[in-house]
Amino acid sequence: MDLLPISTGSPPKRVLSRALAAIAAALALGALPATAAGVPGLEPKLLPAEQAFRFSARALDAKTLEARFDVADGYYLYRDRMTFAAATGGPTLGVAALPPGKRKHDEFFGDVETYRGSVVVKVPVVDGTPGQSVVVTADSQGCADIGVCYPPSAQQVRLTLPALGAGPGPVVEPARAQKGLFK
Fold this sequence. Notes:
mainly beta, 2 helices, 5-stranded antiparallel β-sheet, 2 domains, Immunoglobulin-like
């Protein structure tokens, strides 16, 4: 066992290089999480919720909407935290036909169903007419695999219900928030 002399200066180079080699080996073997090693720049980068859980929608016809979430790799959405609503003054929405999710025991919410990848949901339009505009709000909540959960978030799109026989409308994504004072 090497005993190091007490010093107020820098440690000898051989000791420092041994310490860095030990940290690198532990990281490579997965024995230490990167943040535990205190190595700057290795902290995980989390996506903003609207990028981790990309929402889009389109009107299939005057009676049906198709809502879609594209979930980024390393993230998941909770099935029971997903809802869809229309703004007042326009058509109303029925109960969404959510596909089954993958069962998982979640450390935050217990036994749940989750979605990864893409999830497509059919949402009935109760009293829509062709050419009518509807503002759809999708509420959802998800987490990153590294153990960070996002607060519930809402994303909104405006769709126009297509004319009879016209086919589905275009895919619409929420408007991106502007950053700063200038565009």
